[in-house]
Amino acid sequence: MSFATSQTKISPKIYVVEHLDPELGPWSALEYRSIAEETNATGSRFCLSSVSPSLQVPQKLQGLGGLEIKVESVEQIFATEKEKVCLLDPTASKELSPNDGDDFDIFLFGGILGDDPPRDRTSELRRKGFEGRRLGPRQMTTDTAVRVTRTVVQDRTVALADIPYIDHPELQIDEHESTEMPFRYMADRDNQPIMPQGMLELIRKDPEKGFGDLL
Fold first, then answer.
1. Helix (H, G, I), strand (E, B), or coil: what is residue 146?
2. In contact, 18 and 125? CB cutoff 8 Å
3. CB under 8 Å to 130, separation ≥6 — which residues?
4. Is the peptide bond before 166 cis (omega within 30 degrees of 0)?
5. Which residues are 47's β-sheet partners?
6. What is the pLDDT, as a whole number, of residue 129?
7. Are 185 and 1 in contact (CB under 8 A)?
8. What is the mean pLDDT of residues 70-85?
9. Is the separation of the CB atoms in 50 and 124 below 8 Å?
10. Under 8 Å CB-to-CB from 11, ≥6 apart: which residues?
11. Is 20 in contact with 50 (CB distance < 8 Å)?
């Protein structure tokens, strides 16, 4: 389930998740670790903003290359660069395109995107006036949304409409039980959903838990 990036890239970008929750569960920790590792491998940066000072950062996120954890909001961090910030917004009038890699340096996501059922976590950021782009009609996990954005604006290996996806994949828990994931994922070369390392094990460990409990 690894994702290979192209060698043809434009300038490094900053990918920001505005962490809008007072806690950080195991699901989010795996997603954030995956985002940090993939982003760092491309020479770009991953920032968690608006993190509560009292939040205990999970061990697996501590000391990760490419990951910056900030208590300040995205407005404060990029106060002088607002015109360079692109908000990934499902209600935006324009779809994300490779040209947006020329116009924007910072790509902003309202965590947690992978809610089920979806909540409009982006609404708080939308009201702040950031320029918006949409990724399509389907609900994505946060790491998928960042991966898709990076593929389009930084790797430029494929247009948004041509990215291979798997919607609502069914995961085998054991020989008798399976569960359907209510999200859209990018597909790898073997047509398998790209997920963070350890995610399958997390879901199999306690399949009775709702996704909200894992986030």
1. helix
2. yes
3. 82, 85, 86, 87, 108
4. no
5. 16, 68
6. 86
7. no
8. 95
9. no
10. 105
11. yes
Instruction: For tokens 């490779």, name the residue.
Output: 98
Amino acid at site 41: A
Taking alpha carbons only, the member of 106, 101, 183, 149 closest to residue 5 is 149
Q: Where do we find the tokens 């460990």?
A: 205
CA distance 215 to 209: 10
pLDDT digits (tens, 9 = 90+) for 80-113: 999 999 999 988 999 999 999 999 999 999 865 4
What integer pLDDT is reported at residue 178 of this predicted model?
Answer: 86
Going by C-alpha positions, the residue among 173, 104, 164, 115 that lies closest to residue 140 is 115
Per-residue pLDDT reduced to its tens digit, 168-195? 999 888 778 888 999 999 999 999 999 9
Q: What is the rounded distance in angstroms from the CA atom of residue 11 to the CA atom of residue 177?
A: 45
Distance CA 189, CA 22 (A): 37
